[in-house]
Amino acid sequence: MNNFAQEWLQAWNSHDLEAIMHHYADSIVFYSPLILKLNNDPSGRIQGKEELRKYFSRGLQAYPDLFFELYHVLEGVSSVVLYYKSVNNRLSAEMMVLNEEGKVIEVRAHYKQM
Questions:
Q1: 31 with 39: CB under 8 angstroms?
Q2: For residue 54, what is the enclosing H or E element?
Q3: Considering the entire predicted model, what is its pTM?
Q4: How confident is residue 73, by pLDDT bands cut at 50, 70 and 90?
Q5: Contact residues for 45 (Cβ-Cβ < 8 A; gap 6+)
Q6: pLDDT (tens digit per residue) in 3-16
Q7: Domains of the chain, earliest start first
Q8: How far apart are CA 81 and CA 15, in angstroms?
């Protein structure tokens, strides 16, 4: 899981959208409080890789100085939690469920309130 976490982090920190998207399955379901803000969507949910690509693209534009600092990788059964410093120095934890190919099929993102 550490390789997955390092590759994920490097993709984000390089702002390489294709490298970022490589980690997600076509059937991804993604939940985040930032979806409320960036998408103005009260469900806080995105479904499907193409919709996620659009959301991530908006996020990279909204936060041009985005840089994640990974603190911990917590391993589970077919899942991982990445605990890191996110945009605007906010602490974040993302719980990711992985399929048999190691692609993310569900994310639950959490942020410390500032």
A1: no
A2: helix 49-62
A3: 0.92
A4: very high
A5: 29, 30, 31, 35
A6: 999 999 999 999 99
A7: 2-111 (3.10.450.50)
A8: 21
